[in-house]
Amino acid sequence: MGSVFGDYNRAETFQASDAPLLVVDTDLVIRDVNPAYLEVTGRAYDELVGTAMFEAFPGNRDDPQATDVTNISASFERVFRNGGRDYMPLQRYDIPSRAAAGAFVRRFWTSVNTALRDETGHVIGALRHVEDVTMIMESIWNPGLSSPAALTMDQQMWNSLVTALAREALGHRQARTAAEQLQHALTSRIIIEQAKGVIAAREGISIDQAFTRLRQHARRHNAVLHDVARAVIELGLTV
To answer: 225-235 and 155-203 helices cross at what angle (nearest 10)?
Structure first.
């Protein structure tokens, strides 16, 4: 599974989406993040990818009431078990401060986790979509309560809340599209790897040479690489 995630073709929608998106495998190791996710968390690509989710984002250990890591872990477990989508309720999940080592910055999020499958239908990871609603929550949050206080909003606050909810809805739609494209990319990668192995074994050549033949055949016939690979596997196509 690691090789699949390590070299799959990243979906265009995933990269371009304004929705902050993260990909984890079933061991909860981060396999990819898009620019929007890096921006909202203030992190760098190289420090996240290849790192365990809760090592990168350990939660605020100084908050004895924090249940963020437990809740998110449970959500991923449901996704991996059921192979579907899990919408999480509003969650406070503080993130490490970039300004002071060991300190945390308070953040509130809405999030949804969506299963990613291979071509056989097995769940191999999840796409996580988050939206930062901290600015809205801090406008109505009473620190003395365990939940948002029911306060009267002024027009500006109401407009901000509506905007945030609209962005969340748009983000969920973008995340669903990205999840479909990522799953297709992962499936294509698996089929191509299998075809390379078939060609290498049949022709007595290296894996790199097999891939070159596969790619050249696709270009000569103006065909999709994934389709040529499937023909090699299922129809015995010679390239």
So the answer is: 40
> How is residue 144 annotated by DSSP?
T
pLDDT tens digits, 31-74? 999 999 999 999 999 999 999 999 999 877 777 666 788 899 99
- For the whole model, what pTM was predicted? 0.64
Which architecture, in CATH terms, is 2-153? 2-Layer Sandwich (3.30)
pLDDT in tens, 130-189: 988 887 776 665 555 444 444 445 556 555 665 566 566 666 666 777 777 777 777 777
Residue 188 parent element (H or E): helix 155-203
Closest CA to 228 of 203, 195, 200: 195
